[in-house]
Amino acid sequence: MSVQRATFTRPLVAVAMVGLSTLYAVAQQAPVPTRVRGTIEKVDGDLLSVKSRSGEDVRLHIASDLRVAGITRIALSDIKVGSFIGATTVPGPDGGQNAVEVHVFPESMRGTGEGSRPYDLRPNSSMTNATVAESVVGNDGHTLLVKYKDGEKKVFVSSETPVVTYVPGEKSDLKEGAKIIAFVKALPDGSFETSRVSVGRDGLTPPM
């Protein structure tokens, strides 16, 4: 009986080891990016060569339904009660949320991505798209109470925090030297395609 058990057990152990190896290999694979932040180095027809902020060379195919939005700087005072904003925040030393950047959506984009979720700009960062319910002006910035459908959050925006908004853009804005955020998907051959790009105006690096 002991010999039969050992004979029967060996294939199960082998299968288990293969399964664990496969799971480990999958876990070790780099996650597929959903956005690429970087600088356009070359434009070749519908192919963009981008140097990412982290130093990788990325080639992006431009989709036929491409949408381009310009990103331009505005003043902190342009954030009003009732503005629909997106704020990238990190936890502050006092337990509050400090804004890394704020982008004010034009009225036509109100409601875009409403809510709060983890974000990939910095470690422990989150993105909150919400309506400004209150704004308290201090000596070193504004404290905003923002409300979204599932809750609310207080966000501190310092006088040094980049504040930007969206303006209409077009494919011709995608040129050498432009700073972009491209929203991408992986193609079957392992390359990437983008159908939505935000591009900084006047040399601006989109801060989000």
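That was protein one. Protein two is written in the same sequence-then-structure order:
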Amino acid sequence: MSLVGKKAPEFKLDSTKGQISLSDYKGKWVVLFFYPLDFSSVCSTEIPEFNRMKPEFDKLNAELLGINTDSVYSHKAWIDSLGGVDFPLLSDYNKEVTKQYGILIEDAGIALRAAFIINPEGNVDYEVVHEPVIGRNVDEILRVLNALQTGHACPVGWKPGDKVLD
């Protein structure tokens, strides 16, 4: 069931940057993305790409939050192996948040690959969910965030600077 148009489920979790609640980001855009496992091949390409693109998200007053069901200890070890990450990785070790967002693979105990864009009022404006074996296109998430921030309808293939629809 889609969360688009609904209030994003609140959470309070431990992370690599201390305890974090979604409500800590009220008034900001949040890109909340779930990934299956630390140290996995696809995630090891994706997290560094989000990190590389972080300045672009910062320009749009958007916070990046990565989350999965691994422990904070695993996150910290993985971050060290990646050479650092400039945004928090949250631990949903008990799998409650992953369930609330509707993306838990129950038998494996891991998250589907998913991204949610949450607006400053705390509502989900965008979600994309797919199988864990395919990495996301971070440029597309950034493009959608830009489009949402125009407050207008945007045609297919729209990019920042293109005309919006009335």
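The two ends are 30 Å apart (CA to CA). Keep this in mind for the problem set.
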